[in-house]
Write a structure and sequence with these properties.
The protein is α+β, with helices and mostly antiparallel strands. The protein contains 11 helices and 17 strands. The protein folds into 2 domains: about 210 residues, Aminopeptidase (3-Layer(aba) Sandwich); about 140 residues, Aminopeptidase, CATH 3.40.630.30. The two termini are about 30 Å apart.
Length: about 400
């Protein structure tokens, strides 16, 4: 792989622990905690993202002639499509009905984490333009050698998506809802930009939580004790059992997260009658707070909105963060100040006939996604003229 006349060697590692944390993080940077060695290692070491869970690590490591790691790619061999949030179950079903084997497939992603960011991680002191195209070519060669049906790069940046497009990959557009901080000094400053109806609704919801005798606290760093993680895991599994049927993240994952990334964790804990009844887990990056997991015991009106959305907004305002990313899906977020933004994924498909079928599907789906984002943005909760509502570009 050329880089200013040098040769770049590629290798695959089956455990991120085989890569020194300093080398990985020199490529991942420190802006987004989910891309860092500590987070990915916590997933693997805890069994959350491991072969037994259908996530066999196949991380790509690129080294220069001196053996210095200049790029890494978090990649997994998968036998299912769970925990990805860019849904391809329909593709899998169609291919298998036609007699093909969709699984195993390769997935470049952060497991269980629909947070957009770079997926081709290049050292900051290396010319990215010289590394990205050959790494993309290498990914396709790896997929060909492994004889997988497909390779998917999910929640990449728009710039990366364009690079994949130039290499002949299929590009899929998705949508999330993010809250943007426009220099608000207080939560009321944010509310002042909403329509009267939306402002009234949010105040009613927040008041409704307090009227149930529920108080909330945000805990971070050393203030997070083992008992908090024990409670959070109980809430998380209780909600997973009721709604999704399977909790992806294991109990040891949260212990490791608390040790390795405590300063980046914000736990929102809800308490009633002296007892904790629910919690929301957030991680903080350089300019955003990311809502990840939530759980509670019992039904408490408006508590989900307060714990997951409004507390995150307050934290962003207090700490001067640019935005809140509250996870996948959820048009109800728009009514609470979260506007649509585009997300991107890239797809390499081995079978030419299947590739044409997917390309035709995307040709129909993409204009619909663009139109939906424009419609949702135009009918947001903000007063006319308060903001530019067309927030449908690349997140971050």
């Amino acid at each position: 792989m050329p880089d200013g006349g040098e040769t770049i060697a590629l290798r695959i590692v089956e455990r991120i622990a085989e890569v020194r944390a300093a080398d990985w993080d020199a490529c991942a940077g420190g802006d987004i905690p989910f891309l860092g060695h500590a987070f990915l290692d916590a997933l693997e070491a805890s069994g959350s993202a491991a072969a037994d869970a259908g996530w066999l690590p196949q991380h790509v490591v690129a080294e220069d002639a001196e053996g210095r790691i200049v790029a890494v790619v978090p990649m997994y061999l998968k036998g299912h499509s769970y925990g990805e949030y860019v849904f391809d179950h329909g593709w899998a079903q169609a291919y298998e009905q036609a007699g093909g084997a969709y699984y195993p497939k390769l997935q470049v992603a952060v497991p269980f984490t629909p947070v957009a960011g770079p997926r081709l991680l290049v050292r900051g002191d290396v010319e990215r333009a010289s590394i990205v195209p050959p790494v993309i070519d290498a990914l396709a060669r790896i997929a060909q050698r492994r004889r997988v049906s497909s390779l998917h790069v999910t929640f990449c940046t728009e710039v990366e998506a364009e690079a994949f497009r130039r290499a002949g990959w299929l590009i899929r557009r998705g949508m999330q809802y993010h809250w943007h901080n426009r220099g608000y000094a207080t939560f009321d400053d944010f509310l002042a930009e909403l329509t009267h109806e939306r402002r009234k609704t949010i105040r009613r919801e927040r008041r409704g939580v307090a009227e149930q005798g529920i108080s909330l606290e945000r805990i971070t760093g050393a203030a997070i004790e083992p008992r908090h993680w024990e409670l959070f895991f109980a809430f998380y599994t209780s909600t997973s059992d009721r709604k999704w049927g399977y909790p992806y993240l294991t109990r040891p994952f949260f212990d490791r997260l608390g040790i390795a990334l405590a300063e980046r964790v914000v736990l929102v804990m809800a308490k009633k009658n002296g007892r904790y009844i629910g919690a929301a887990l957030n991680l903080v990056g350089s300019d955003a707070i990311y809502g990840r997991n939530w759980g509670c015991r019992g039904e408490h009106k408006f508590l989900h909105f307060e714990a997951c959305y409004y507390q995150a907004i307050e934290h962003a305002i207090v700490h001067g963060l640019a935005r809140v990313e509250a996870g996948a899906q959820g048009e109800h977020k728009i009514r609470r100040g979260y506007l649509p933004v585009a997300t991107w994924s890239a797809h390499w498909i081995a079978d030419p006939a299947f590739r044409r079928a997917v390309a035709n599907f995307l040709a129909r789906e993409t204009p619909l996604m663009v139109h939906e984002a424009e419609e949702l943005g135009a009918h947001g909760p903000f007063r006319a003229g308060a903001i530019d509502a067309s927030h449908t570009g690349e997140p971050g």
